[in-house]
Structures are given as structure tokens and as C-alpha cells.
Write a structure and sequence with these properties.
Blueprint (H helix, E strand, L loop, with lengths): L1 H33 L20 E6 L5 E7 L7 E6 L6 H8 L8 E5 L18 H15 L6 E7 L1 H12 L3 E7 L5 H13 L6 H13 L8 H4 L8 E6 L7 H10 L4 E6 L7 H20 L1
Parallel strand pairs: 3-4, 3-5, 5-6, 6-7, 7-8
Antiparallel strand pairs: 1-2, 2-4
Helix pairs in contact: 1-6, 3-4
Amino acid sequence: MTSVLYILLIVLGAALLLCLGTVVFCMHAAKRVLHPVSKRKALDAWPDQFGLPYENVYFKTEDKVQLKGWFIPSEAYSNKTIILMHGWGMNRADILKNTYFLHDLGFNLLYFDFRALGESGGKTSSIGYLELKDVAAAVRFLKETRPQFCEKIGLYGLSMGGMVAICEAARNPDIACVVAEASYYSFRRVVSRWAWVHHRVPYFPLIPIILHYIHKYLGVNPERYSPKYNIPRISPRPVFIIHGRYDNLVPAAQAKLLFKKAGEPKEIWLVPGAKHNKCAEVGGFEYKQRLADFFRQHL
């Protein structure tokens, strides 16, 4: 009897240690998601490399985070500005290379780094929720300092930037149109998929615990800000969803679901052979043509 009790205590102790270890791991994982120090990287491209005049611009968010970006004015006067937003672990230079051609179509362009990434301040990246404060600050900056250039505003976002573009357009009627490329469908789904693709972390029991601590650290449930809840509110303004047919992080099926939830007018292009964030690279000339046609028509 004593030996059975002894074994039972050992099993219970091991189970307790395993539970504690799991909780500690999940707490650490949640902090790594929200504080991606290793994801901040230096810029490797600037507008003047493509023959574009530009201004370095700075502006602060409502929670006092300073953001840095570029304002690239159209060669001839234009009252139309496109705000372009990068993905998680990226910076504004990463999307400049594939989108600067929009300047030649007569649009002003505003690029900026999200908080905790590129050259912007801040240490916390929320993969969407806090970044909504960043795009709101960008819109406010344009209206306060360059009102004559932003009578019409369009949004372009890649990956996390796509989520931010969708949510900002849903709440801000001043946004005329949206291009969301490789946007995720649900915060819960993208976190679980990223954990599995990069680290083979199974959904149960780890992901629900990690999501719990992300919620706790942010003080808000980021799932509420998922594009699937917001994209229906963009209509009747147009939205264009671009997605890689072979996206390994956000499966193309989720882009189809997002498209289904969007109201008219709407477009979707599933780029054959493209993985996550590779639509421009794979799409080539057709990518530029479709992007140009959308903004020409709707902005």
C-alpha cells in the first residue's frame, strides 16, 4: 500500500511539474509573439533608389509611440494618397520594391513602419490590434499636415498589414478602397498555424493557453479584431483580396472565406504558385497590372 501511494505521489508530482512547465512555456511564447525583438531589421531600400523624391516623416500614435515613414508625392499634384502597410517581421522597405510603381500612376504614397518594427518606436507588436492605432495615426497625420493630398485615401496591406487595412476601412468611412494581400482570416487561426508551420507546436493544449496569455497581456481579445468580423462593414466601398494559391501560412481557403464575407463590390485573385507574401514575385507584370487597375478605377 505504501509503495502504491509512493508511486501515485510521484505521478501526481510529475503531472504537476508538466502542467507548470506548460504554463511557463505558454507565457514565454505569448511574450515572444508580442515582443518580436528578433524580427526588427534594418531597411535595405529607399525611394531615391527608384528615382523617387520623398520626405522622411514622423508621427505619434494615440498611445505615444513614434512611427517613421516616407511620404512620396506624385510628380503632378494629386489629391489621392495610398497608405501602404507591411507585414509582421517586415518593414516599409520590403513592400516598397513591389509597389513604388503606383507613384507613376499619379498617386501620392505614404509608407510607414509599424510599431516595434523597422525604424519605428515601441516594443510590442500585437499582429493587428495595436497596429490599428498606427494606421489611425497615419491617416490623422495626412489630414493634419497634407489635407490637399488626401481628399481620397486608399489602403494597401500585406499579411498583417492586410488585416489592418480591412479593419481600418471597416471603421473609417473616409477610406475609399482597400487591397488586402495575404491577409489572415482569424487571429486564432494565424497564431496556431504559424506555431505549427515554424515550430510544430500542436493546437491542443498549447495554443489556447498561449492565446489566453496574449489576451491577458494586451488587455483585450485580439480575435475580436479579426478580418472575418470586419470585412462585411467595408461595403459599399470596394475591396480587392490578393492571395497566394499555395500560401503555407494562411491557406487560400481562408482567403475564399474572407471574400465570401465581404460585400460588393469585391474582387479576389488567387495567384497560381505563390506562397505567403510572394504574390508580387510570382505574379510579375499581371500583379502590377491588377493593382494598378484597381486603384485607377476606385481611387
